[in-house]
Amino acid sequence: METVTLDEAAKYLGVAPALIRSWEKKKLIQSKKDHNNTRFFDLELLKRIYDNSQGKSQEVGFKILQNTEKTEFTTIELFAGCGGMALGFENAGLQNELLIELNKDCVNTLQKNRSHWSVVQEDVAKIDFKSYQGKIDIVSGGFPCQAFSYAGKGKGFEDTRGTLFFEFARCLEEVKPKIAVAENVRGLLSHQKGKTLSIMLASLKDLGYKPAYQVVSAQFLDVPQKRERVVIIAVRKDLDIPSIFPDPKSYTISLKQALTNCPDSIGVNYNDRKKAIMELVPPGGNWRDLPLEIQKKYLKNSFYKGGGRTGFAKRLSWDEPCLTITCSPAQTQTERCHPDKTRPLTVREYARVQTFPDDWKFTGSLTSQYKQIGNAVPVNMAYHLGQCLIAMLEGKWNNQTKQQVIKKQETEIQQLLIPGLAKVF
């Protein structure tokens, strides 16, 4: 992979550096910084983005990734939702042994699509996992990011009592899997000024695991969506295994590719007033494209507040990955309007953006279906993560790569230390 600096890239393509910076801001490309804080870009991806802007790109096809080879590695998933993580893991070759989910509609969705999965509708706090000890390779879950009661005492696991992360940690304590995987929003990095993540990592260490974390960008993992998540991988200390995260691809998939031949389905509609306003917004535009008086009426008090407010009256663009899917495509501050048709994205369009296959059916009300899809882990992102977990369990790495990975992860963990937790690490 050939990399170039911002100035070198601009000179090579014959464009202004500001244009490349705008691509990065739109999350069409991501740079990597060296020890001098100099940005470096993947030249091949820059060429693709430039060609796309000139209307002469060779597009990468949209597809749901699936590995025909299956493994015997088993998983338990907590807070399974409507199956994004589980389906991605299955597509990668993992075996879903048990899924726990409290929401009835999500459980019905899981059972409707995978009758052979063992799905339990229950509060995870009421589940005894001891019978699975020594039988499970991976425990995964995407839990809510709650504030912990913490007074700087460094109790690790005990500091999380009363939260859903505590139940995730309790499952690890009872099952003792080889690997634990946790997924959460990017905001976890700054939640309580980093304290929340620090306590999570300390708790995993306290339970006998070596944790590592990384921000994973779905748009560079065959997902037509700009969605960033914090992924924590923790390996049991008695195992000589490095944590491996998915490598970003040198391309992105546009919304146009994702929605080609998308099946018709139900979806919410705008009222006449909102439809008339959205008719004025061009593809890729937002409230800034409206006449000034309409801006003021539509945004109300938000008009006078700072920040980009780019989600207001947002119409999506065909040529880029979709903005992060929310639990509702018609919320005022997080609009997800179709690029051409003046309506929000439908349920099946939502599912395409999250890389669910067209035959994956969602149950419950229309509102519930949107919420299930919006909260899900993108299936293709989970596939790539599953492939990494399989590589870890099968020992598919070389010693040089292993040492580089471990050194990088240890540095990241140490940088996150806060007073009072040092002795836990």
Explained architecture:
The chain has helices at 6-13, 17-25, 43-53, 84-92, 104-113, 164-175, 195-206, 255-259, 272-278, 292-299, 347-353, 366-375, 379-394, 399-415, and strands at residues 3-5, 32-33, 39-42, 74-78, 95-101, 119-121, 138-141, 179-185, 209-217, 228-236. By secondary structure, the chain is α/β, with parallel strands linked by helices. The protein has three domains: 3-53, Multidrug-efflux Transporter Regulator, Chain: A, Domain 2; 74-251 and 379-415, Rossmann fold (3-Layer(aba) Sandwich), CATH 3.40.50; 255-375, DNA Methylase, Chain A, domain 2 (Alpha-Beta Complex). The strands form two sheets. A seven-stranded mixed beta sheet has the order 6-5-4-7-8-10-9, with helices on both faces. The chain has a three-stranded antiparallel beta sheet with strand order 1-3-2. Strand 4 (74-78), helix 4 (84-92) and strand 5 form a beta-alpha-beta unit.
Number of helices: 14
Structural class: alpha/beta
The tally of domains stands at 3
Strand order in space, largest sheet: 6-5-4-7-8-10-9
Mean pLDDT: 87
Terminal CA distance reads 36 Å
Main sheet record: 7 strands, mixed
Count of DSSP E strands? Answer: 10
Quick overview:
The chain is an alpha/beta fold. The protein contains 14 helices and ten strands.
Topology:
Layout: E1 3-5, H1 6-13, H2 17-25, E2 32-33, E3 39-42, H3 43-53, E4 74-78, H4 84-92, E5 95-101, H5 104-113, E6 119-121, E7 138-141, H6 164-175, E8 179-185, H7 195-206, E9 209-217, E10 228-236, H8 255-259, H9 272-278, H10 292-299, H11 347-353, H12 366-375, H13 379-394, H14 399-415
Parallel strand pairs: 4-5, 4-7, 5-6, 7-8
Antiparallel strand pairs: 1-3, 2-3, 8-10, 9-10
